[in-house]
TrEMBL record:
Keywords, ordered alphabetically: Hydrolase
Protein name: Alpha/beta hydrolase fold protein
Hydrolase in keyword set: yes
Domain AB hydrolase-1 residue range list: 5-242
GO molecular function term, any single one: hydrolase activity
The organism's place on the tree of life at top rank: Bacteria
Cross-referenced Pfam families: Abhydrolase_6
Length: 260
């Protein structure tokens, strides 16, 4: 039994995982599931967001130490959180024993027009920086989810997310810092030292699925594709994510046992 650390992406907080942590814990049999916020988001919304992905990785380590969780860890991370996991593994390879990266993209491995689809540039610039909390959350849901919802389900989810945004507002300055950290990050040429599972959505409206396919080829690691989900696969189909991780962890754990 081990500790799984869950990391989300730009402007998102731990509450955006919804019921996924419990579902995931039941599937993989993890003793501990720890969800962390980055400075500037969620419980840390009053803090200044960090200027680099490396600083975010250091902050995750400090939070876990403060909470009393010791390495090694297994990390499941989405988007910007996945960049942090990759850098964390580079800086402290002995601390992470498994990485599950969801819809991530990395420079210089992936071109900028695959890392963020150009069609989204105008809307993101306008709504993320100038729009109200409600308009911003509507845009985020449209860009990150493809799940069919009834009008009532959609309204309830957006009211919940808008409530989070008002309770723990992410300032425009912090949005810019997080965007700058993600845009300026350059991954190391070598693959992460820990085994990696890549999960990607074929209908991701934000990040081209080619990003994960390219990384899988360059790193010689496993990639699984969801045919209908959007960027936030845990939101659209958390059960699928949990099952993919469960099967992969069993395979990699069996390989480790045979190698001993």
């Amino acid at each position: 039994m081990t500790t799984w650390v869950l990391l989300r992406g730009l402007m998102r907080e731990t509450r955006h995982w919804g019921e996924f942590p419990m579902l995931f814990q039941d599937a993989v049999g993890a003793r501990n599931i720890v969800t962390l916020d980055f400075p500037g988001n969620g419980s840390l919304h009053a803090h200044t967001s960090l200027n680099s992905v490396a600083e975010m990785a250091h902050h995750c380590r400090a939070q876990l130490k403060q909470l009393g969780y010791a390495p090694p860890y297994r990390v499941l991370a989405l988007s910007l959180g996945a960049m942090v996991a990759v850098e964390w593994c580079r800086l402290y390879p002995d601390e992470l024993e498994r990485l599950v990266l969801i819809n991530t993209s990395l420079a210089p491995n992936n071109p900028f027009y695959h890392r963020l689809r150009p069609a989204n540039y105008p809307a993101l610039s306008s709504y993320l920086m100038l729009g109200s909390a409600a308009r911003r959350e509507r845009l985020i849901l449209r860009l990150t989810s493809t799940q069919n919802r009834s009008a009532q389900q959609r309204t309830e989810l957006l009211e919940q997310w808008t409530g989070y945004a008002r309770e723990c507002p992410v300032t425009r300055a912090n949005i810019l810092r997080q965007l700058r950290a993600a845009a300026s990050y350059r991954a190391a040429p070598a693959a992460p030292a820990a085994p990696v599972l890549l999960l990607a959505a074929q209908r991701d409206r934000l990040v081209n699925v080619k990003c994960s396919l390219t990384l899988a080829k360059q790193w010689d690691c496993t990639v699984k594709l969801h045919p209908t989900a959007g960027h936030d696969i845990p939101l659209d189909d958390g059960y699928w994510v949990a099952q993919q991780v469960k099967e992969w962890v069993k395979e990699t754990d069996d390989i480790d046992k045979q190698a001993r």
